[in-house]
Amino acid sequence: MWPAGDPGTAASSGACLLLLALAAAVLALVVRQLLKQRRPPGFPPGPAGLPLIGNIHALGAEQPHVYMRRQSQIHGQIFSLDLGGISAIVLNGYDAVKECLVHQSEIFADRPSLPLFKKLTNMGGLLNSKYGRGWTEHRKLAVNTFRTFGYGQRSFEHKISEESVYFLDAIDTYKGRPFDLKHLITNAVSNITNWIIFGERFTYEDTEFQHMIEIFSENIELAASASVFLYNAFPWIGILPFGKHQQLFKNAAEVYDFLHELIERVSENRKPQAPRHFVDAYLDEMDCNENDPESTFSRENLIFSVGELIIAGTETTTNVLRWAVLFMALYPNIQGQVQKEIDLVIGPNKMPALEEKCKMPYTEAVLHEVLRFCNIAPLGIFHATSKDTVVRGYSIPEGTTVITNLYSVHFDEKYWSNPEVFFPERFLDGNGQFVKKEAFIPFSLGRRHCLGEQLARMEMFLFFTSLLQRFHLCFPHGVIPDLKPRLGMTLQPQPYLICAERR
Ligand code: HEM
């Protein structure tokens, strides 16, 4: 017979067993993670990483696009990074980006299934959607709607001009005193997309809409933080009740609810098949595909698409204009030359029109140089490979995350002389005419290239010329603000004050 056991010993041996099981589970997880971190055979070389977190720590220590350009000078234009068990390659310089996004456009058109994107949009919507039927249907609808309700209509140019007047009048209320232009530019720019998506604009006093844009834009900043990269590598971090990922999820839920209500409101009096804006057109598509079980049009994907279009259109164009204003105050001689061209071609009172753009090469050159130099989306949006492939002799497996370092393209010495100098004349020929440059790709390349490029170009030209036609821009007391960008998926200037004095 077995001797009766001491209950204290049984409890402690039970605890020991539990600890042992826990230690074995942790060990198994660590081994699995270390195996995941091994470079696949034939994969491009890259900087050595730390156990478990790979190269994530390096992305938090320096501006990621600058770090990546530096690493490309050591490991080559195509090198690899380990984002904590997520294999990624980074494309640097124009040739490498073109080789992948253009020459192998289909294979490089996917988006990575990162836990963050899965959690936020379930890989649906448009901007983050996987390359397949969902993306094709949503992109086609967005392109057609942007043409129908946006730049395809002559009257749309008047809508931008009307918005410019609200914008300039709001600036006038400061009477040359210092103020931060950020909110006014954000409101003016987002209203252009709002016309297309909702068929209405929001007043500059609408604090609810502004709050939605603010927290959405905070998410763009958070999405590039090292702690969110950590969440992508170790999604179980999501159960922790604190951290940047929690702020990001809270903001995303608030934005979702706001857009849900707004969509309900603007579609209230909808007449089927007589769309007034993007939301109506989307609901028509849902009706048409009602009996198709494979259809990707859904209420949820409508909310994701609307959110993506608003933020993709607002965050980028706003930041280009904020940098443009900053550089005009920084270089008064360049500002003066733009104003000279405006006075000559448009005159002091007439509203600027798009047809005048081709007669204004210097202004065009300045806007192009701002886009090149400031790199609004320095790493574009992450891509992924949809199949196994080979590039420059390297084997890249299906599902690899692909980072396009657009900043390195705009500072590629093979294509740009003295790239670190702000020099609009690089876009002019000997006769002062505007010249296009092949390695100028702020809107990226290939199948996923920016679908708002045409709209953004219209907005930038009309807002910028209207602003400089009416005002002279300078820093208060000549104090130059910090020029280092604020980090995020987009690069924006640090907050700065400007004086806009009537000319
Ligand atoms: C100066 C302003 C803008 C810049 C610099 C810019 C830049 C970019 C870049 C770099 C991408 C990534 C492309 C890729 O994945 O390779 C992108 C994608 C995108 N942009 Fe823009 N963008 C601007 C304005 C706009 C506007 C005004 C809209 C619409 C209102 C817009 C909508 C989108 C969408 C929907 C995508 C995702 C396309 C897809 O996944 O198929 N963008 N943009």
How helix-rich are the residues, as a percent range?
Answer: 40-55%
Name of the CATH architecture: Orthogonal Bundle
CATH class: Mainly Alpha
What ranges have pLDDT less than 50 throughout 5 or more consecutive residues?
none
CATH topology: Cytochrome p450
User: Nearest-angstrom radius of gyration?
Assistant: 26 Å
State the domain count: 1
Distinct bound molecules: protoporphyrin IX containing FE
The main pleated sheet reads as: 4 strands, mixed
Class by alpha and beta content? alpha+beta
Name of the CATH superfamily: Cytochrome P450
Shape: globular
> What count of helical segments does DSSP give?
17
- Termini distance? 104 Å
Structure description:
By secondary structure, the chain is an alpha+beta fold. It has one domain: Cytochrome P450 (Cytochrome p450), CATH 1.10.630. It has helices spanning 7-36, 56-61, 64-75, 93-101, 115-121, 133-151, 154-172, 182-198, 207-222, 226-233, 244-266, 278-288, 299-330, 332-345, 361-374, 406-410, 453-470; strands at 78-82, 87-92, 383-384, 389-391, 394-396, 401-405, 471-474, 499-502. The strands form three sheets. It has a four-stranded mixed beta sheet with strand order 1-2-6-3, with helices on both faces. A two-stranded antiparallel ribbon has the order 4-5. It has a two-stranded antiparallel sheet with strand order 7-8. Strand 1 and strand 2 (87-92) form a beta hairpin. The N and C termini lie far apart (104 Å). 43% of the residues are buried. The mean pLDDT is 94. It binds protoporphyrin IX containing FE. Protoporphyrin IX containing FE (HEM) is lined by residues 126-127, 139, 193, 308-309, 312-313, 316-317, 320, 376-377, 380-381, 404, 442-444, 448-452, 455-456. Homodimer. Its EC number is 1.14.14.24. This is Vitamin D 25-hydroxylase.
